[in-house]
Design a protein that fits this description.
The protein has 641 residues and is of the alpha/beta class. The chain has a domain of 300 residues: P-loop containing nucleotide triphosphate hydrolases (Rossmann fold). It contains 26 helices and 13 strands. The chain has an 11-stranded mixed β-sheet, with helices on both faces. Strand 11 and strand 12 form a beta hairpin. Helix 4 packs antiparallel against helix 13. It is elongated.
């Protein structure tokens, strides 16, 4: 099936009123295909037609669909002989979840790709609540877990809450820099530093792991399917990430992890004894709305994927959806560019590719299913020309969709109860306190203790590695997953919509519930304070009478002493003390006040990103594309050739 001259058809020329279907050779697809156009213009239909032909030709492919319609439609075209070749990854299938562990068996030289992909996804989700400190701690957490066998994303929070588990992971570390972080830096963090940084990470990771839909997928130690094996054996992976059923944020996380994992599997082909050449079959990777999953590492995927026979077909709606690095990688590495109708801004960018044949005015006025394209033909980019994409392929007489789904669930899924029991057994030793128990004393009791005494006791009771454990094993914030269940604000910022003062207080005291627990604590402190004042007042009333008696006795004693002194000095007994001599020393010893100096804290300006945009290159001219007759195309698309 590895035939470089095999053609995949997707459009027909319309020059001079004559419609001639054409396609792209398999060898030219290795340079990747980029499709752009407004919604409803026919992009998804074109991708479906190409994927259906690949399936009928026995090719291996992965199709990631964030909407769900294309994924379900492709299932209708699975032939009976390929029913068992399909992995249908549908996260919303709660009763028979498929396992996917991004942390499983990652080589040392590829761990940075997993970490960078996850970090980029987290930053995209929590763009307004991300910090360099969080990134630093979380990246070291992920790097440590990637070295520990059997770890999953559920273990991220265990690293902050379970001292025994953390010690096991750290003892297993071979990377000296990561080990140094956990042995020296993390254990020496101050209480306030840890209280501000660690709960924020726990909250964000908890938004994923607290959701059974995601937890039962990423919490299983062993993945249900092997991407590398699927590539080499030309299997089919269809991923249905329907936003309406999965959720926007979960779609981003799973799609990004799958994209990274597919690229890592392709890179592993370089380690194979089989040379990466004619003996290795190509694997076609379709990604609709790819900007959702395009992180900084996606640019590396585009530039390196061709070496490992991973051929990309990516589609989205407009240029500004891409980050600057990804945009440069797309226009710099893609061989075939196809444009449906686009907006004015995109037309200005694409005009540099399609001029002088087509202007930006032409690009914004294209009709439905009409395209302008620069096609890769025998390794050379063609001159831009116009075409019309072919209509949807007719469905087969019999559809095996249900058989495909059932076969996939049976082969790759596990019963929900079995999965949840296994995860619960692992998390049983997580060391996270129950909600009814607090690992720390109430704040009013902590305040009454001596700070020096507490520190001394802590130093005696803990080893250098264990120091700071009390602050790390506290309960998860009560609102850690509240934002997930709020339909109006599914993934809000960690601090929610609190007033500014409350947000500051929340940052200062870490993982306390600002809406309930802290108010209760204040009430308790007020009650304790009132009781103390009553006791002090009652004691004071008794003490005043004693004080008056002591003063009178002291005055009598003082007068007697002065009389004795004057008598001995030859003076008259009982002579009054001069008015000017009274209290001279006392008056002089009273300070008149002290001055303090203040300062102004200047806000540091954040420079804006002024990096100039890279202009896309213009492809070279080439001969006309491969063409066939409409009758021949119909026979091919309907499986009669």
């Amino acid at each position: 099936m590895n035939n470089p001259d095999k053609v995949t058809y997707f459009a027909a020329t319309n020059a001079r009123g004559v419609s001639v279907p054409f396609g792209i050779k398999q060898e030219d697809r290795s340079k990747h295909m980029y499709v752009i156009g407004k919604t409803g213009m026919g992009k998804s239909t074109m991708l479906e037609n190409m994927a259906i032909q690949d399936i009928r030709n026995g090719e291996g492919l992965a199709f990631i669909d964030p909407h769900g319609a294309s994924a379900e439609r492709i299932l209708d075209y699975i032939p009976p002989e390929r029913v068992n070749d399909v992995v249908y990854f549908a996260p919303f299938d709660l009763e028979q979840p498929i396992a996917f562990n991004i942390m499983e068996d990652i080589g040392y030289d590829k761990r940075h790709l997993v970490v960078s992909g996850l970090m980029a996804t987290f930053k995209k989700v929590w763009i307004d609540a991300w910090s360099a400190r969080m990134e630093y701690i979380l990246s070291n957490t992920l790097l440590a877990l990637l070295e520990y066998p059997g770890s999953t994303l559920l273990d991220v929070n265990r690293m902050y809450t379970n001292k025994e588990y953390r010690k096991q992971v750290v003892d297993n570390l071979k990377d000296p820099l990561v080990k140094d972080f956990w042995m020296k830096e993390f254990t020496n963090y101050t209480d306030r530093y840890t209280q501000e940084a660690t709960p924020a990470i726990q909250n964000k990771i908890g938004q994923f792991t607290n959701n059974p839909l995601i937890r039962n997928i990423i919490g299983q130690k062993t993945s249900s399917f092997d991407i590398r094996d699927m590539m080499d054996k030309q299997k089919i992976l269809i991923v249905n990430l329907s936003k309406g059923l999965v959720g926007d944020t979960n779609m981003l996380l799973l799609g990004s992890m799958l994209t990274t994992h597919i690229f890592l599997a392709a890179m592993s082909r370089a380690d194979s004894r089989i040379s990466v050449g004619k003996d290795v079959p190509p694997f076609f990777f379709y990604v609709d709305e790819f900007q959702n999953f395009a992180t900084e590492s996606f640019s590396e995927i585009l530039s390196e994927a061709r070496k490992y026979k991973l051929d990309l077909i990516i589609a989205h709606q407009y240029v500004e959806q891409m980050q600057e690095e990804v945009r440069a990688a797309v226009f710099g590495n893609v061989g075939t560019t196809i444009a449906f109708r686009v907006g004015p801004f995109d037309a200005e960018v694409l005009e540099t590719i399609f001029m002088p044949e087509f202007t930006k005015e032409d690009l914004v006025n294209l009709g439905f299913a009409h395209i302008y394209l620069s096609l890769m033909i025998d390794g050379v980019g063609s001159r831009p020309f116009s075409a019309i994409t072919i209509p949807p392929i007719e469905p087969p007489p019999r559809i095996y969709m249900q058989e495909v789904i059932q076969a996939s669930r049976t082969q790759f899924g596990r019963p929900r109860k079995e999965v949840e029991d296994a995860i619960a057994a692992v998390l049983a030793g997580a060391g996270i306190p129950k909600s009814s128990e607090s690992p720390r004393a109430p704040r009013e009791l902590r305040a009454s203790r001596s700070g020096r005494e507490n520190k001394a006791n802590a130093r005696e009771a803990r080893s250098p590695y264990d120091r700071g454990d009390a602050r790390e094993t506290r309960a998860m914030p009560a609102r850690a997953h509240d934002s997930f269940v709020n339909p109006r604000n599914p993934f809000a910022k960690e601090k929610h919509n609190m007033p500014e003062d409350a947000m500051k207080e929340h940052s200062a005291y870490g993982a306390h519930n600002v809406h309930g627990e802290r108010n209760v604590s204040r009430t308790k402190k007020d009650n304790v304070g009132a009781s103390l004042r009553d006791v002090i007042a009652s004691v004071t009333n008794v003490s005043r009478e004693d004080e008056q008696r002591r003063r009178m006795q002291n005055q009598s004693t003082l007068k007697q002493t002065l009389s004795d002194v004057l008598e001995n000095a030859g003076g008259r007994a009982g002579a009054p003390v001069a008015e000017g001599d009274r209290g001279t020393g006392v008056a002089n010893t009273r300070a008149a006040g002290a001055s303090i100096s203040g300062g102004v804290t200047a806000k540091r300006a954040v420079p804006s990103n002024t990096t100039p945009k890279k202009e896309p290159h213009k492809d070279e001219l080439a001969p006309k594309p491969f063409e066939i007759s409409e009758r021949k195309l119909k026979d091919i698309l309907n499986g009669r050739s």
